[in-house]
Amino acid sequence: MFDFLFEYRGVIVGTIFVALIAAVIWAFFYGRKLIRTEKNDAVFGNPARALGGWHWVITGVSAILIVWLYFSWDAARAFHPKAANELCQVAKLSSAVNPIRSTFPLEKEFLKGTSLLVRENAQLSELEERVERLGFSETEKAKAKETIDLMRAAITGMTSPEYLDAETSSQFKSIEARIDDLTAKLADENYPGEPTTEQVAAAEKNARWGDSGNEIPNAPASPRGYKFDAAAKEMKSIASDFSKIRNKNENFLAQIEKLKAQIASLDELAQASPGVDELLVQNRADFVKGLTRVLRRVDDGNIFPPDALNNVQAALVKLDDEQKSQQGGLRFYDTFMMPGGQITSGSSSCSEQGSGRWLPKPSDTLRTFARISNPEIGYKGYPLLWYKMKPFGEMVDFVLPDFISSLVPGKFPRHDENGIVTPNFKSKVHDIVTGNFESFKVPMPSGHVWDSLLRVLAGLFFGIILGVPLGLFMGLSRFSKGFFDPMIELYRPVPPLAWAPLILTIFGIGDDGKIFLLFMVAFAIMVISARTGATGTHLSKIHAAHSLGATNRQILRKVILPNSLPEILTGIRIAIGVCWGTLVAAEMLAGTTGIGFVENVARKQSDYEIIWTTIIILGLLGLLFDLMMRWIIDKVIPWRGKG
Q1: pLDDT tens digits for range 51-64
Q2: Which residues lie closer than 8 Å to 133 by C-beta, 6 or more apart?
Q3: Mind telling me which residue stretches traverse the membrane in this protein (predicted)?
Q4: Separation between Cα atoms, residue 390 and residue 440, nearest integer Å
Q5: 390-401 as b/e, with b when 16 or more CB fall inside 10 Å?
Q6: Which is it for the CA torsion 466, 467, 471, 472, positive or negative?
Q7: pLDDT, greater one: 367 or 504
């Protein structure tokens, strides 16, 4: 069934997306109409005004799903399955042209040469200021400043059109012509011709968007994709040739050689300084290193005359305009249907960046959930939620304590000289209480979800049966409140995770430690809730019960406990939520099963679909518990909020 749904996921997701939008619009207008036409004399603040409103439930749930489908790009994939592949090819071209674009003020404020010029002159000014603090003689100072001035002259010479050699100018014209030629090719409807056999095979071999571990197919799979893929390959060659161009005119090369000699002379001077303070020697060495670093950057020859690259920049602008034109509606689709990120191209693959990456698509999450829900697959060899046949004897062993067999008169049997053990009544009782007997098998739930449920229920159970009585008596007894309150309030504010390492160290990674940690969480909440409920009982009701001859036990059972129930049940509701959060943290710290364990492994593997699957499972289970508690509260204390 899930294979069928996955095969037609585009149609299904698209239909659901449109239906959800229609549901939100309908529910909104229906709700507004109801507000105008409903005749209800309930005053503001009456709890009855908050009842019903199922259309707003539809609105809220639909809105959440719309946001998820939209920002995860699942809706975009449904309406245009090839959009990601085409944007991947566009990203390839953008990535290929970036080495050239970075030279020009197209996406940043300054020309690359301008930025280098400002930076190097600032470095030289700083070095010039340091000359006065290096303890040089006047002659040495003059030599150092002469070197700095020569460096400035070399940089200035690079910016002069007078010294730009013909070969470099010719290289720029070649780059300009090649970019213009590529722009013309992009505008040609027939470029790059029919796809080759290898390209068709690669497109067929590649899975669809989201069908494999490689989220976005890298090989082009549409005419627009072939065009941008071919353009990217040509642009890679152009960018490679452009990056090799250097401003290496004869005047500049002569200045560089002179600078190297000057700096070498300064280096010898800095090292051969007898009687000079060690710190000063180090400062002189750093000064020479600073000059050397500037020289190396200048020697790269990346600064050109200001107008030398104007034609290349103009060609790039034309190419940029043409590639935007060739994208057509794809640009608008990328902007409006794929928000919160973009598709980028790496050395060998394309990937989603932004919300499309870390927010898994609902259809993929459903497929992941179906896969790990399969009991034959599960997660890490353990089902998510299934059952297994267990001998009835194991349940007897769990319920009956082993010491029962020790209470039976007599001794346990021993083997005789022939190595034969003859069982007696005492050993048979021992076999029963330990479950060591042949028994029929019964189905028992098992799996990660079941293990987490059992831990929460066990910790909550012990927290309720021990916390509620103590809380009630703390609300009724001066001794109980004074004796237990400091202990409760001492550990209650401490976050559960602060206790987790200690408890897990003492109890180990088994269930005992996790259940005890959950008990500590639930116990404090239930004590506070029960104590608040007991102290909040109206004194007039207690006096009325006394006047009618009720005993203390009857007052506790008939007056105080019913009046405390709203607080107690609210405390249980809160404790369930806190226990869930604590359990996941405990299972992430130490555990081999459970929802927290699944999420922790998925986190280490950066498997966002599994992470979101566990979050959804936890949310649904928490909602189920909360709905159960609402139902119990409505049935057990129907008088709440009604005087």
Answers
A1: 557 788 888 889 99
A2: 283
A3: 12-30, 51-71, 453-476, 488-509, 515-534, 574-598, 610-633
A4: 8
A5: ebebbebbeeee
A6: negative
A7: 367
Q: What is the pLDDT of residue 336?
A: 92
d(CA 500, CA 219): 49
d(CA 419, CA 423): 13
Question: Which of the 8 DSSP states describes residue 191?
Answer: T
Q: What backbone torsions phi and psi does residue 415 show, to the nearest 5 degrees?
A: -75, 155
Mean pLDDT of the chain: 84
Q: Which long-range contacts (CB under 8 A, 24 or more apart) does 163-168 make?
A: 163/249, 163/251, 163/252, 164/247, 164/249, 164/304, 164/305, 164/308, 165/248, 165/249, 165/250, 168/245, 168/246, 168/247, 168/248, 168/249, 168/304, 168/308
- Under CATH, domain 448-636 is a member of which superfamily? MetI-like (1.10.3720.10)
Token couple for 114: 């301008």
Q: For residues 11-43, b (16+ Cβ closer than 10 Å) or e, as one string?
A: eebbebbeebbebbeebbeeeeeeeeeeeeeee
Pairing of strands 350-354, 341-345: antiparallel
Upper half-sphere CA count for residue 90 (Cβ side, 13 Å): 20
Amino acid identity of 12?
I
Number of H helices, E strands in the chain: 28, 4
Q: What pTM did the predictor assign?
A: 0.75
- Tell me if 217 sits within 8 A of 77, measured CB to CB: no
The DSSP secondary-structure symbol of 556 reads I
Distance CA 138, CA 142 (A): 6
Helix (H, G, I), strand (E, B) or coil at 53: coil
What are the tens digits of pLDDT across the range 422-471?
888 888 888 888 888 788 788 888 889 998 998 999 999 999 999 999 99
DSSP calls for 208-253 = PTTSSSSSB--S--SHHHHHHHHHHHHHHHHHHHHHT-----HHHH
Res 274: pLDDT: 57
Q: Which 3 state secondary structure label does DSSP give 418?
A: coil
Cα separation, 451 vs 369, in Å, equals: 18
| For range 152-156, the mean pLDDT | 84
CB 602 within 8 A of CB 611: yes
Provide CB contacts within 8 A for 215, sequence distance 6+. 84, 209, 351, 352, 357
Strands 386-391, 350-354: pairing is unpaired
| 352 sits in which H/E element | strand 350-354
Instruction: List Cα–Cα distances, 468 to 396, 474, 487, 568, in angstroms.
Output: 30, 10, 16, 7
**Could you state, in order of their start, the residue ranges of all structural domains in the chain?**
2-78, 80-327, 389-446, 448-636
- pLDDT digit string, tens, across residues 502-527: 877 787 777 888 888 889 999 999 99
Give Cα separations from 141 to 193, 258, 284, 285 (angstroms): 67, 18, 12, 15
